[in-house]
Amino acid sequence: MPRPLQLTIHCEALQHNLRVARARLQGARSSVWAIVKGDGYGHGLARAMRGFAAADGLALMDLHDAQQLRVWGWQKPILLLAGAFQAIDMQPVLTLGLQLVVHSEHQIDWLQDLPADAAVQVYLKINSGMNRLGFAPADAGAVYRRLLSTAGVGNVSLMTHFANSGVSDSAAPAPSRQAQMQCFEMATQGLPGQRCLLDSALVYADYDLLSDWVRPGMMLYGASVAPGAQGDDLGLLPGMTFSSEVIAVQRLIAGDCVGYGGRFCADRPMVIGVVACGFSDGYPRSAPDGTPVLVDGQRTCLVGRVSMESLTIDLTQLPQAGVGSRVVLWGRGLPIEQVAHAAGSIASDLMCGLSHRVPVLETHAA
Ligand SMILES: *Cc1c(COP(=O)(O)O)cnc(C)c1O
After folding, report:
1. How far, in Å, from the CA of 59 to the mean position of ligand 1?
2. Catalytic annotation on 283?
């Protein structure tokens, strides 16, 4: 028997979350790139593709992943979010019919080699303050004209990416979303073409929806991007549930300690459950005592350091619990944001950190 560890991917929740995104965008009629980078934020690329079958396109970073999507039958647009990495990428870009972000001059050089009738659609990316990928705002006009005069280039759209979710703009650190927005608008003034701006922050309805295409990631998997908020506050459903079982029980007396380094010591008699899940499975080793877990639907918490293939939890207040009790580490009933917050991390880091050896069950109905 394998260890009783399981990752359940709720495809119906991915579908639901995409509907929530669309409902928010109703007035703006934006098209949706569903972001499936990072192996579909840890949900599995093929499962993300199935969950987002109704998206207008899928966007990711890796050419090989894009190729997989085509092999699996995805016929709608695919966008490479960092564009091509080498000149030889142009051939598969053509044969797979991919769209490209263009963020640097050498990528435009590669576009020169395209056949004149290639009509590759590109997204000119402007660095509006995040200082990751993109052209300097002052160069936007010249780059735009260079793209227009490149024979193999079809439509040119304009995009930028925000460094902050901007949900509480007054408290947000620099660069503020507003400042980036202004920078983008100035840089692209007078340049025709579709705009592609918003990420998951589109769920906050007070946002101006100036985006012809939006690029939500996190929200589609059911988690919030705003500090302190949870996906369920926004009507989102968790895309995954990570669960296991209690495989052993230990009874402690005052003074007994648990696990490596004796990080947690009991000051009273306690019952400890050992759960088949550890940091090699993707549970964060940084999780401190007190990190929430759900046992047979009831909340309790982690005590003691997380081991490679097990972790320990407090069952003292749960007399019914014992070997075989179901433990939800995050997902339905236990928002991943709470676990991530406790561990000093973020939801997408936990999702993407799951080991590929965790058995996956895919559901299609609630
Ligand atoms: C990851 C990513 C997104 C999605 O961001 P979320 O915060 O997960 O919604 C959008 N655009 C780009 C360029 C990205 O890399």
Report:
1. 9
2. no
Does the N-terminal peptide bond of residue 175 adopt cis geometry, omega within 30 degrees of 0?
yes
pTM equals 0.95
pLDDT in tens, 318-328: 999 999 999 99
Coil, helix or strand for 45?
helix
**76 is an active site residue:** no
59 lines ligand 1 (CB under 6 A): no
Handedness of CA 329, 330, 334, 340 (dihedral sign): positive
Q: How far apart are CA 292 and CA 271, in angstroms?
A: 16
DSSP conformation letters of 85-119: SSGGGHHHHHHHT-EEEE-SHHHHHHHHTS-TT--
Work out the number of other CB atoms within 10 angstroms of the CB of residue 319: 8
Nearest to 48 by CA among 12, 19, 11, 7: 11
> What's the pLDDT band for 176 if we cut at 50, 70, 90?
confident
Phi, psi (deg, nearest 5) at residue 159 = -140, 160
What is the 8-class DSSP label of residue 177? H
Cβ-based burial of 132 (10 A; exposed 0-12, middle 13-18, buried ≥19) = exposed
